[in-house]
């Protein structure tokens, strides 16, 4: 009867599995894992410095007046504009600080709406994390150079998790300054370091904000010292706040206005507008977030994309205040949205330069494309509904262009997709959004990283799907390369030994080891990406009682002794279970995979052999004996309905299984394999 | 070292492109696509299936017990051990309600045949005073008619009846007894919470013999906690020595909410392992077979000519009435289970009398009929009649069944028979079910093998379900 129960269990395990890296707020000092994106931003060209930017541009645009808007952007020439991001380690309070600033400026009403107002996605609310950067425009009056002046402030709340640092990079491109938020009790953590350098390398003004000073364990002085020693930030520049109680908040916006330079663009130059982000709205169609670098736009203007050459008309233009608010215009230095007749978000290329169709401009440098570090196959959980999954993925990628999708097919799982993700959390969030927002049910294959295999004829293959690697290639293999990362780990000094052991077990090479203060150590390691993809962070958390924080950035490929590990059921390879591993890890991984499968495959009418193999060499083997008995002896008093329901359940269970040869594999088994490192 | 190859902005986009406007039409196409055998079956259901016949069988539930056995999840009413049952108002009231239910049951046609089988199940029907049982039989007789040849079975438990009582039951027309022995070991009986011991078992058997009951069944349970192969062998041996005409062997089901359900996990000590439990099943099949019993249904054995006619109506998918607490009925193609709680049951009878209860929504799916037919027929050694089934549900479905079962016929779990009752060889079979399959006389029956197929019947039947659609 095992399979009846199993059928019922699927659903739950599937869900809990998708959530396995979800975290509970406040219990750990770090969240981290797998990044993907380049830390380096191709530096935006328009940082010209503060003093060069005194000219006024107030009459640079006609006001169309058709929009029923009371906001007149003409009152905000660039010197009255400040664009800034809020950056920090996970959970240090960015979104909460954003709430307070929105309230302070009357952009949202105090006590109305949910906390972390800008975290709008269901995943964000459930997990309590920011996944997508969000922009909001605020207006604030400040006594500046002796007179009360109205300022337009553009705030971007960013995600803290390493997977989404691409969002941070993009956001910084639209800013001249950043609030670097640091938890007063936790101090500088791995993503604090990473995000500081992102801002620093883009030449942004960094304002340190030591937050959560209301906590009993807050130690702002220690944090000030860390900021000084690690980033050379002046302790006197640090603002002390509690986003929870509101303490010290009145100092934040004055600091933003006085310390951050206004945007440097030229209002007299032809329009150049950076495309920051895009999403699909049921009613309005494609909505693009843009930063006007030079010149200005007005509703009705004809614009063109530097990347595609396509032209569009501006149908609507405005600011996020915090919801879409039409203004009819956007001027130099302003950040807002435009609606054009774009049919698909695929036309909206992040980092593209938009310009007036009539003029020719030098494109802005844009950004490096998001890098996909983790690949996995996504298949419909219930075999038949490929089209439904296709549809769901298409809809979701409209709003998350950072996922790459190509069709692939598997003998075991049928038609599906190979998707590239920024990291494992990103993959997890994508699954959850597919389920929650698009009601799709998916099986995902073991995540893999892109390896490079080189052959004697000079050919070179980038392997995103282990199954696609030929088991006996035509040409001799000359080299295998695997991607590596540079990992930053910050931990209390008593855990150093354990962390070093973990990193060397994961084939890591230590690059740096120092102390950020008397109690905290800082280490840098080069690690193969594969080694951190599965379970590294959980392991790190458990050996440091949750006190370590972890961040990484991509690094070079390195030569490595890699093998393809096949899983065979009754002698037949299961393509969707193939993995590529380092030769030294193969026996252990093979054994774990075989054991897991033995546990999760039900006994069937025939004996099943489960094997792990490298080429023709079997490295692990188990057998699952045949099912002996599955009979309902009793069918009492003609109660046929109850019995039939039982058997129907059993049938449903079967239908949800994937069949390889004569072996039924529960979907659960695929999910379990994700956890084998 | 090479740098990570990074795609340009242009190549990093997903490759599937479709304008949003197309989403809708694709969805519609998708919704229309699945073609199941069921649709096929609906179109080809042409002949009158057995469920359209008027019922000639009645199941009557008499729920009273001294106490609840540890494995039991039936709707029962425990009376306790002290009271004399003769005029226990709980029994009297129940029987009255039961008779009202019988009377209020709508009878479709006036040409109803008289009842050919009646089965008193429980509970412990032998706890009900004969005069009350008589009332029930009279009510049934005047409502539906009762054939003079009718098989009237009654479940009886050792220790609940003496010879006088038994004679009274026999005089009322009861002509078949199903004796709830379960095991021949006092320790096991005690562990099950049975209200009798082995001594009472022998007394009961003597009583049956002394009163000349020649058609009786010994009911046993295998895979009880702490049961060893030796004990099971002993129970089977003593059963054979008692010479019942019928033996029922139930494999213990650990049901949720029962004492066993709380205490035990199937396959784990003190319950026998799955392997041992399968061995118990094989032992019964072997020993009873050698003693001349025909294994005519998964859990039923009989001497020639003594199969339980009542139970066989179930396996043939024929209609039957059901009366009393929790009883299931199958009338006009609708399967219905009565409320399992006494109060709810009273309400049900009341609404039946007021004419406000008009059965369940009165609709059923052809696929349900097909599933019932397969599930029930495959419990019997006769198996599924592929021709009648094909005529009712379509030969495409028969073909799919053959395809699904092909590997299991090769492994010996499933047997296909020709119209002369000979089993078909594998080569012959693959020729018959090749893709240009046509309805042919060569494939007449499909059945599970004994004991290998029977032992995995759930597994095998659910394979059949998977080709029927949802
Ligand atoms: N005690 C205290 N708690 C705070 C303060 N600011 C934020 N928090 C709490 O810290 C937790 C994290 O806050 P968020 O604003 O979601 O943090 P975040 O930096 O946006 O997190 P990510 O977007 O996931 O990186 C929440 O439970 C907040 O209520 C503060 O000043 N004091
Ligand atoms: Mg946040």
UniProtKB/TrEMBL annotation, chain A:
Gene3D superfamilies: 3.30.70.240, Elongation factor 4, C-terminal domain (3.30.70.2570), Elongation Factor G (Translational Gtpase), domain 3 (3.30.70.870), P-loop containing nucleotide triphosphate hydrolases (3.40.50.300), Translation factors (2.40.30.10). GTP binds at residues 88-95, 157-161, 211-214. It is a peripheral membrane protein. Residues 79-264 form the Tr-type G domain. Pfam families: EFG_C, GTP_EFTU, GTP_EFTU_D2, LepA_C. It comes from the Eukaryota. It is found in: Mitochondrion inner membrane. GO terms for biological process: positive regulation of translation; translation. Its EC number is 3.6.5.n1. Keywords: GTP-binding, Hydrolase, Membrane, Mitochondrion, Mitochondrion inner membrane, Nucleotide-binding, Protein biosynthesis. It is an enzyme of class 3 (hydrolase). GO terms for cellular component: mitochondrial inner membrane; mitochondrial matrix. Promotes mitochondrial protein synthesis. May act as a fidelity factor of the translation reaction, by catalyzing a one-codon backward translocation of tRNAs on improperly translocated ribosomes. Binds to mitochondrial ribosomes in a GTP-dependent manner. Belongs to the GTP-binding elongation factor family. LepA subfamily. This is Translation factor GUF1 homolog, mitochondrial. It comes from Oldenlandia corymbosa var. corymbosa.
Automatic annotation (TrEMBL), chain B:
Pfam families: Radical_SAM. GO terms for cellular component: cytoplasm. GO terms for biological process: porphyrin-containing compound biosynthetic process. GO terms for molecular function: 4 iron, 4 sulfur cluster binding; coproporphyrinogen oxidase activity. SUPFAM superfamilies: Radical SAM enzymes. Residues 50-294 form the Radical SAM core domain. Signal peptide: none annotated. Belongs to the anaerobic coproporphyrinogen-III oxidase family. HemW subfamily. May be a heme chaperone, appears to bind heme. Homologous bacterial proteins do not have oxygen-independent coproporphyrinogen-III oxidase activity. Binds 1 [4Fe-4S] cluster. The cluster is coordinated with 3 cysteines and an exchangeable S-adenosyl-L-methionine. NCBIfam families: hemN_rel. This is Radical S-adenosyl methionine domain-containing protein 1, mitochondrial. It comes from Oldenlandia corymbosa var. corymbosa. The lineage of its organism: Eukaryota, Viridiplantae, Streptophyta, Embryophyta, Tracheophyta.
